[in-house]
Amino acid sequence: MPGQSYDIIVIGAGFGGSSCAALLAQKGLTVLLLDKNARPGGKALTISKNGFTYTVWLVNSAPLQDNLLKKTLEELGVDDKVELVGTDNIITYFKNSQGVLTIGPDSSSSELDPNQIFDWLELSETERDEALRFFGDITLMPPETIETLNDISFGEWMSRYNITQNLKSFMSFLTDGCFLVPVERQCCAETIRTMQAIFLRGGNHFCKGGWGKAAEAFADAVEANNGSVMMKTRVDKIIVKDGSVTGVNAGGNIYNAPIVISNIGIQPTILKLIDNQYVEDSYLDDVKQLKPSWGFMGTRYFLNKRITDKSFGILFSPETAWTDEKFNKARAGEMPEDVPLWYEVPTNYDPNSSPEGKMIIMTGFISPSDPEMTQEEIDRWLAKGEEMILQIFPDLPKYIENREHYTPHDVSALTRDHVLAGQGGECIGLAQCIGQAGSSKPSFQSPIQGLFYVGCDAGGTGIGIHQAVDSGINVANAVYKQIRG
Ligand SMILES: Cc1cc2nc3c(=O)[nH]c(=O)nc-3n(C[C@H](O)[C@H](O)[C@H](O)COP(=O)(O)OP(=O)(O)OC[C@H]3O[C@@H](n4cnc5c(N)ncnc54)[C@H](O)[C@@H]3O)c2cc1C
User: Fold this and answer.
1) 109 pLDDT exceeds 70?
2) Exposure string over 181-208, b if 16+ CB within 10 A, otherwise e
3) Cβ(442)–Cβ(453) under 8 Å?
4) Atom of ligand 1 nearest to the CA of 364
């Protein structure tokens, strides 16, 4: 209700905002959760259209075991509303040095011999010991050693091993796919911590009915704990008086609270919702310097025939690892011959996602985060993505009933406001790069009394939605401690 007072207002019902709001409401605080969209979920919301129900674009979560999202749903008593699926039904294509698409060994097999992976990646006998040392060091590195790697890049750390280009490219599709940052900038501690979690606790985690179902369950938990949720409500300003937050202004309506937690990204929060006079110039400069992750764009193909029985697929080659230099050339028009491609087929892990006999395949590939990409540039990137998926499914065009593209412009419109050049359509949030991740991650506490951040920009670690929930848990605990001592 306009004019009403709450203990806490959370702006944004992405995975960070909705989990944080639910946990605080469960602790007995009065919480108002606001979002500009019609449904919770932010960058992983659910869409239902023409008989298809799916996450708005490709979202594969990890880790599978000890998953914080699952634990939080259980803790809130709403896990019965969400059906999570872990699947081994995936396929990885490596376009080898002869240009032939070869399929990787079944990674779910308990009898998987690393030599099967090394054969597939064309490693000679003499190259295998070093490859084993490399993977062993990632998998077994103790946390205190990982902590010493905050200030070097994963690329630099990888260069300490004499491993082949094919292996580096294999590693890059894993890490680039998790962070949307090239290895030369990835914070090594963040990368190793996250890769270790995937190697030891699995990945390929999906949600029936789309990932948005989980954020919707978090929002239900807010209401079940006497909180309020207002969708289709855009916050225009965070109100500050005498250096402290007092509430928000949404479409002219004022909602009061001494604590506001923003899930909309640090840059839009500070550069758009807060008047400059309340923030020191040096903090404004720091915020402007923050770097977003790259974007992710792709196509949803709605097919009148089921053409694969796999739920998820990947295609990479020895040459597909992105670097900043290669990326800048691609932006300037010099697209590489191959780019790494991911695709998700909800039909195969969630039969209710598609009408009988039909199928949805969603592709995704790394792209600029810039919502102002020109149409010419967008067309060039989309054409490359289509070229890649046709290498796997040459007959795909025969079965397309409908095709929709998603671009950084769509990502920004649905999630994060565009407030700086090149920013807004980022896939994850702030880039998990040196200086912005691990021990250097921005604090979730802003310099304004009572203003906090939650979500992928601050407070968490790991991949995408899992990172956002990690932040939701950490920020809820810290804010509760501040309020209740
Ligand atoms: C194309 C794509 C593919 C991805 N693939 C994966 C994947 O495979 N695996 C994975 O783990 N992650 C993936 N991610 C990343 C993951 O979805 C995000 O990192 C995560 O969901 C971000 O959560 P968040 O809580 O930080 O915020 P967001 O999801 O950005 O939520 C922010 C919320 O704030 C709301 N908001 C913004 N401004 C306002 C305002 N002024 N007033 C009110 N509300 C506002 C928005 O509507 C939104 O709901 C993908 C993302 C994209 C875009």
Assistant:
1) no
2) bbbbbbbbbbbbbbbbbbeeebbbbbbb
3) yes
4) 1
**What whole-number distance in Å separates Cα of residue 2 and Cα of residue 357?**
48
Q: Give the span between the Cα atoms of 360 and 345, in whole angstroms.
A: 6
Q: Is the CB of 149 under 6 A from ligand 1?
A: no
8 A C-beta contact, residue 467 and residue 180: no
- Which residue of 213, 349, 415 sits with most ligand 1 atoms within 8 Å of its CB, as the best mutation to test the pocket? 415
Give helix 15-26 / helix 464-484 axis angle, nearest 10°. 30
Q: Is the peptide bond before 318 cis (omega within 30 degrees of 0)?
A: no
pLDDT tens digit string along 127-167?
999 999 999 999 999 999 999 999 999 999 999 999 999 99
Helices (H), 93-124: 114-120
Which of 43, 211, 417 to mutate for ligand 1's pocket (most ligand atoms within 8 Å of CB)? 43
Inter-residue contact 292 to 381 (CB < 8 Å): no
Query: Looking at ligand 1, which residue's alpha carbon is closest to its atom 24?
Result: 455
456 with 242: CB under 8 angstroms? no
Pairing between β-strand 295-303 and β-strand 8-11 as defined by DSSP bridges: unpaired
Ligand 1 pocket test: which of 264, 266, 343, 414 has the largest number of ligand atoms within 8 Å of its C-beta?
264
CA 404/CA 119 separation, integer angstroms: 38
7 and 201 Cβ atoms separated by less than 8 Å:
no
pLDDT in tens, 292-351: 999 999 999 999 999 999 999 999 999 999 999 999 999 999 999 999 999 999 999 999
What's the token pair of residue 314?
């990947």
Buried b / exposed e along 167-178 (16+ C-beta atoms within 10 A): bbbbbbbbbbbb
Cβ 8 vs Cβ 31: under 8 Å: yes
465 CB near ligand 1 (under 6 Å)? yes
Residue with token string 């979920």: 41
Contact (CB, 8 A) for 244 and 253: no
CA-CA distances (angstroms) from residue 247 to 41, 235, 250, 476?
A: 23, 10, 10, 18
DSSP conformational letter for 140: H
- What CA–CA distance (Å, rounded) separates 150 from 439? 7
Radius of gyration of the chain (CA): 22
Quick check: helix, strand or coil at residue 71? helix
Helix (H) or strand (E) holding 480: helix 464-484
Buried b (16+ CB within 10 A) or exposed e, 254-283: ebbbbbbbbbbbbbbbbbbbbeeebbeeee
- DSSP assignment letter at 293: P
